[in-house]
Amino acid sequence: MSSSKTSIYSALGANLLISVTKFVAGSFSNSASMISEGIHSLVDTVNQLLLLLGISRSHKEPDATHPFGYGKELYFWSFIVSILIFGLGGGLSVYQGIIHIIRPEALGNPKLSYIVLVLSILFEGTSLVIAAKEFNHVKGDLGWWEAIVKSKDPSTFLVLFEDLAAVIGLVIVGVCLYLGHLLNMPVLDGVASLLVGILLIIVSIILARESRSLLMGEGVARETKVKIKALVDEVNGVVSVPEILSNYLSPNEIVMIVMVVFRDDMTSAEINAAIHEIRSKIKEKSALVKFVFVQPTDHLYLNSFFPGRSSSRSDRPV
User: Fold this and answer.
1) What pLDDT sits at residue 51?
2) I need a surface site. Which of 1, 62, 70, 269 has the fewest CB within 10 A?
3) How confident is the model at residue 145 (pLDDT cuts 50, 70, 90)?
4) How far is it, in rounded angstroms, from Cα 66 to Cα 256?
5) Which residues cross the membrane (predicted)?
6) Are the C-beta atoms of 65 and 77 separated by less than 8 Å?
7) Residue 2: pLDDT above 90?
């Protein structure tokens, strides 16, 4: 699932168009929930810019200090985005909501707010459809949640979650704004802001969990390791493959270490030839594996290097 900027640019344009209008509408209608929505859109605008920065920096060429490249820049900036959603988006909205629940203020003319809400739903909805179509294209046959958990490209699901949260938040604000004026209950405006804040905090926690996992270093799925092991077992002279270690450097780059036990009677030349064949087979099988290190070993060495580690250990699905 490689990074694509289409959904990011569409979300950036939508949030840029409506963030200012939300603040203007919130000021004229004296609506805390509309101000919260303005904050939400402003934070989302910054988030899209940070994602674009992360994608750009992740493509930097390897150098002496980063021999494996800068692919994890995307994971770092995705984690920063989740923190911003939590702090600036969710935190400020919750604060605004609590203040206006404790001290509700008389609501102004809601007409401008309704206009902005309709336009916002139109723009955010369009961005959501684009993000959903793009994610549907990259997820293949996987289910939506399974694809999000297994995705190694946070830019695909970050925009999707942001747009979904934005549309749900707009619906919440619209309903509370209407009921607040209909029932003459200005406290509902604060309730809407609080609900939007809670929604953003929930989304930020989910995104932070996924981004953190990628930043900390996820490996390939257990089923992928099984396929690689079967591939290596076919190479002449291989006795067993006790362990395969891997790490995603970026959505499109994997570094892999294959621990291999060779026959005792093999010469150095035969082992080198087998290692070359193993590397070729793995890279031919998966274009994502950019670096393959084959470590000739035995079980005693493996147990001393990874005490208590079992080759049948179940890894987090990828």
Assistant:
1) 87
2) 269
3) confident
4) 17
5) 6-25, 74-102, 114-135, 156-181, 187-208
6) no
7) no
Give me the sign of the Cα torsion angle 5, 8, 12, 14: positive
Q: 6-216 — its CATH code?
A: 1.20.1510.10
Give pLDDT, residue 281: 93
What's the token pair of residue 131? 């993000």
Out of 3.30.70.1350, 1.20.1250.10, 3.40.50.620, 1.10.287.3510, the CATH code matching 222-305 is 3.30.70.1350
The 10 Å Cβ neighbour count of residue 168 is 16
pLDDT of 302 reads 54
Q: Which residue has the tokens 């994971």?
A: 75
Instruction: Supply 282's token pair.
Output: 């793995």
Distance, in Å, from the CA atom of 94 to the CA atom of 192, rounded to the nearest integer, reads: 9
Q: What is the pLDDT of residues 264-312, one digit of tens each?
A: 889 999 999 999 999 999 999 888 899 999 999 875 555 555 555 544 3
Residue 269 confidence (pLDDT) = 92
Laid out side by side, the sheet with 253-262 consists of: 238-250, 253-262, 289-296
Note whether 196 and 37 are within 8 A (CB).
yes
pLDDT of 4 above 80: no
Nearest-CA neighbor of 123 among 192, 170, 84?
A: 170
Cα 38 to Cα 22, 57, 167, distances in angstroms: 5, 29, 13
Would you say residue 198 has pLDDT above 60? yes
Spans of all domains in the chain: 6-216, 222-305
pTM over 0.85: no
CB atoms within 10 A of CB 150: 16
Domains 6-216 and 222-305 share a fold: no
* CA separation for the pair 70, 72 (Å, rounded): 6
